[in-house]
UniProtKB/TrEMBL annotation:
Residues 74-136, 166-252 are annotated as: Disordered. The lineage of its organism: Eukaryota, Amoebozoa, Discosea, Flabellinia, Dactylopodida. This is Uncharacterized protein. It comes from the Eukaryota. Residues 74-87, 94-136, 166-175, 188-252 have a biased composition (Basic and acidic residues).
Length: 252
């Protein structure tokens, strides 16, 4: 026999089949293939009494088996391609998700950095405004003291020249009585009065020269107007800066 017990035992040993059904199927397929080859060469049948006869397959059955095998292979390939496509799609989705997360983190960091800068600028502006308010307050106090000193000085000057003028008027009244008693003419008295008016004008001029700060109220109004204009300009600049920051946020 071409296929003897030793050969069958060797096949069983080499392939190490786990189940009896697998062994029977393998032997049947091998015998069927060998039988077809030997029959084609005109050899005698190799089956003996102790071998089981494999089922005979018609050409239609073999064709059907081949078609099923082709279909199975095609389905396996399609399944493998579908699996690969699904894995690639999942990989793309994962990469897209990671990219979006990174972009969101980057935008969030930028937003936090922008908020931090705005907060620092706001604090800086508040500190500058507080310092400016303190300086203005101290300057205002200093100016108030200067204005008060000017007023006191004006009052002292007015009192000084007023007292001297009153004293001179009294002296001239007394002199006039003496002139009448001494027989001096009214023309002399008129000349004295004219001289007195001239001296009074001279006193007024000298008083103004001694008091160049007499227009302190006007200066005070001017300084208040300058302060008001400065505050308006500062507020205008603050609004312009705020609009510029808003436009920058819209561009981002």
């Amino acid at each position: 026999h071409v296929i003897d017990d030793v050969t069958i035992g060797k096949v069983l040993h080499d392939h190490r089949y786990d189940r009896v059904a697998d062994v029977r199927t393998a032997i049947t397929n091998a015998l069927s293939q060998l039988s077809e080859i030997l029959d084609a060469r005109g050899r005698a049948s190799i089956y003996s009494d102790h071998c089981f006869k494999p089922p005979q397959q018609t050409p239609e059955e073999r064709k059907k088996l081949r078609e099923e095998e082709i279909k199975r292979v095609r389905e396996e390939r399609e399944a493998a391609a579908e699996k690969k496509k699904r894995e690639e799609e999942e990989e793309r989705e994962r990469e897209e998700k990671e990219r979006k997360e990174k972009m969101e983190q980057l935008l969030r960091r930028k937003e936090l950095e922008k908020e931090r800068r705005e907060e620092e600028e706001s604090l800086k502006e508040a500190e500058e405004a507080e310092e400016e308010r303190k300086r203005n307050f101290l300057t205002r106090q200093k100016k108030e003291r200067e204005w008060q000193r000017d007023k006191e000085r004006e009052k002292e000057i007015d009192n000084k020249w007023g007292v001297e003028a009153d004293e001179r008027v009294s002296e001239r009244e007394w002199d006039r009585e003496e002139d009448w008693q001494n027989g001096n003419s009214d023309q002399e008295w008129e000349r004295e009065r004219e001289e007195q008016r001239r001296k009074k004008q001279e006193w007024e001029r000298k008083r103004k020269e001694d008091s160049p700060e007499r227009d302190w109220e006007r200066r005070k109004r001017n300084e208040e107007e300058l302060d008001r204009n400065w505050r308006e300009e500062k507020e205008k600049k603050r609004r312009e800066d705020e609009r510029e920051r808003e436009r920058e946020r819209e561009r981002e």
